[in-house]
Design a protein that fits this description.
This protein is of the alpha+beta class. The chain folds into 2 domains: 143 residues; 80 residues, no CATH class. The protein has a 5-stranded antiparallel beta sheet, with helices on both faces. It has a 3-stranded antiparallel beta sheet with strand order 8-9-10. Strands 6-7 form a two-stranded antiparallel sheet.
């Protein structure tokens, strides 16, 4: 089971994504807890209104619970999965709602929690959430008899190399709009990197695919055909920062153009 998520504040954007029936075969609002709202956009507005009385900017926490292929959870198991993740994230009792998406025959659920406790008007601290996602996943896999996904943190971590980093949520959403899949981008860039002898050959190969190297504020980036930027380090599978620096050392890279 794969769980990911993070603190967010762009409620209008997420409301559009969660209700999008074009990219999903089925969208179901499964639960609305401790909220007066009866639909997803109103739920985000209600959460934002509560947070306005605090200093919390990223006022909700979004998590995606995604069983691996061919794994199907019962309604009761889905409830246990959400409650288990809630316990690991220390969001017990916080207002939340749950949305189920079915896409290409696979089902996953999105959970949105209000980070602010209405009883204390304080926001929950969301530190070390990756480790908490992993701990919840291992617990649920054992409870439901699911195939374990390799751990990358803690004493139970796998001996195998760490899996490639998944795109961030906003990168995935951006790719859906531009038609440029960040996962496909990772495969292409990794292949070109390993096929090229040096940075100059790499830059030439990128140009053939409509991609350009630019120097961003803190790292080297790739500009795609839609004009969007991608961190090169994040788009290369199992290439260390020191290896990448050495590979590009002799290559002049123009800075990112300033926007007006």
């Amino acid at each position: 089971m794969i769980i990911n998520g993070g603190s967010r504040r762009n409620g209008a954007f997420f409301a559009k994504h969660l209700t999008n029936g074009d990219n999903n075969e089925r969208v179901t609002l499964c639960e609305m807890r401790n909220l007066a709202a009866t639909n997803i956009p109103d739920a985000f507005r209600e959460m934002e209104a509560v947070a306005m009385g605090t200093l919390c900017e990223n006022y909700f926490y979004h998590a995606n619970i995604n069983p691996t292929e061919n794994e199907v959870l019962t309604s009761e198991q889905w409830t246990i999965a959400v409650d288990t993740l809630e316990r690991h994230l220390a969001l017990d009792g916080h207002a939340r709602f749950v949305v189920e998406h079915q896409k290409k025959g696979r089902t996953h659920r999105h959970v949105i929690w209000l980070r602010v406790s209405v009883s204390t008007m304080r926001a929950a601290v969301m530190a070390d959430d990756f480790a908490k996602h992993q701990a919840a996943s291992r617990e649920l896999e054992e409870a439901f008899g699911l195939k374990p996904v390799e751990s990358v943190l803690g004493p139970g971590r796998s001996e195998n190399p760490r899996p490639a980093r998944r795109p961030k949520t906003w990168e995935t959403f951006r790719g859906q709009k531009s038609g440029i899949d960040p996962i496909a981008m990772t495969r292409t860039l990794s292949r070109l990197y390993h096929e090229c002898a040096d940075g100059s050959a790499f830059a030439a190969a990128l140009a053939e695919h409509g991609l350009t190297l630019v120097r961003g504020r803190v790292s080297v980036c790739i500009r795609d055909a839609a004009g969007h930027l991608h961190s090169l380090a994040r788009r290369l599978d199992r290439v260390s920062a020191s290896e990448l620096r050495a590979f590009l050392r002799e290559l002049p890279i123009a800075p990112m153009p300033k926007t007006t």
